[in-house]
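Sample entry (203 residues):
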Amino acid sequence: MDRPTREFALQLMASKDKMESELLALMDVLKSNNADMTQPLVDNEGFPRSDIDVYQVRTTRHKVICLRNDLKNLTQQIEAVLHDLHAQQREGAGMDEHKTSFLNEYDEHSTPFAKVGAVIEGSPAEKAGLKQDDLILGFGTLRASNFSNLKDVAQIVQHRLNCEIPICVRRYDDLIQITLIPKTWRGKGFLGCVVLPFDAVDR
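Predicted structure, serialized as tokens:
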């Protein structure tokens, strides 16, 4: 399910304003009949009151009750959406901070442990920005110091399907952070690129 956007929240708040205006208009109808939500609609003898439009008051009260329930539900939905939007902002700030700290782990002396081979057009790898011959310095929690073989990469991919994996690559003389989201696509595998152990290619 897609997470709510700011535009969606604004639409909900506009609907809330409209409901509140309708509610005020209905209360004005009751007021014009010298009635409210609780006054009895019959006289002391049990007959419909002759000083008000009983039918109009009854139907208006029903509309008010329904509208109040709708308004309550909408208000709860708005609160949930705003909470989610605030969480997204916090996550975004956290991701920016994580990206900075992630790149700070590496420099020109960092040792690559894998290399990107062919990258297939339209694949998650291509969309993330990986290029052929990128040297991988970090792949999620993997570094040269704890890398054993390509099964380590496959394990991280399996555990992070449809989730972001931060990757640091060296491309020529530049260090680049890439966010890869492994997922099913029209091609094979979840990445759409070949990952080679760095020992298996020319240094």
